[in-house]
Design goal:
The protein is of the alpha+beta class. It has 9 helices and 5 strands, in the order ααββααβααββααα.
């Protein structure tokens, strides 16, 4: 375990989103959490799962590609320490992956983890103020790796990262919403422009012009926005084209 205070402080700064221009984004933060937790806790491998809402697709990252695939499969199986910890919001302490008990509890997860050289596992919840939003899985090659002090440090890393992860998720959700609104506004503008063009050409009311646009789009199985754009650009007159 690396215990130098300055190094530990730099890790927390990195998990807070520092060290690079602009917001790091959720995938980058998840990758940082796995790499730094593996380094600080001196375990064989780490994995993290993050899903801020019940309808959000969980995002998975790990310190190794094989471990990442294992945790992704564990999600689909609904089996393993990560899914169990994320559902319960409670810490899963040092647990052996060898023997019949582990195979009975996790019949698919335990053999895969053992083949990756991991004999013990623990999982720590990543929490928001409303409940668990993910888990940090620690995979070790020996029981003594997952001591109480290391588990406490791991939980501190998970708790600290949760704040930044939730903040970045909100930022990304805001960007997505703004993009949707921008596209919706652009769509509305081009439709209104097309209505105006048809109104001027054929002395139609705005409602009648919209009916012409919509009827043409439906009868030709085309998007209304595409039809409207061609009308605005003068490449289509749905009234004369049999719309």
């Amino acid at each position: 375990m690396t215990s130098a205070p300055h190094h530990l402080a730099s890790v927390f700064v990195e998990l807070a989103g520092g060290g690079a221009p602009g917001p790091p984004g959720v995938p980058t933060l998840l990758a940082r959490l796995t790499e730094r937790s593996r380094e600080l806790l001196a375990v064989r491998a780490t994995a993290v799962t993050f899903a801020p809402g019940p309808r959000d697709t969980p995002q998975v990252a790990a310190s190794e590609a094989d471990v990442c695939r294992l945790e992704q499969d564990a999600l689909s199986w609904k089996e393993g320490p990560g899914p169990a910890c994320r559902r319960s919001g409670r810490t899963l302490g040092d647990t052996s992956l060898t023997g019949p008990a582990a195979r009975q509890r996790w019949p698919r997860y335990a053999p895969r983890a053992l083949r990756l050289g991991c004999t013990h596992v623990a999982a720590l919840p990543i929490r928001s103020h409303t409940g668990p939003v993910g888990s940090l899985v620690l995979l070790a090659a020996r029981r003594t790796a997952l001591t109480g002090d290391l588990m406490a440090l791991g939980q501190s890393l998970a708790d600290f990262a949760a704040v930044t992860l939730l903040r970045e998720h909100e930022v990304e959700a805001g960007r997505a919403l703004a993009s949707q609104l921008e596209r919706a506004l652009a769509t509305r503008v081009v439709i209104e422009q097309a209505k105006g063009a048809l109104t001027a050409r054929h002395s139609l009311s705005p409602d009648a012009a919209f009916t012409v646009l919509r009827s043409y789009a439906r009868s030709h199985q085309r998007l209304l926005t595409e039809v409207a754009r061609e009308v605005v650009e003068g490449r289509l007159d749905p009234r004369r084209a049999g719309g």
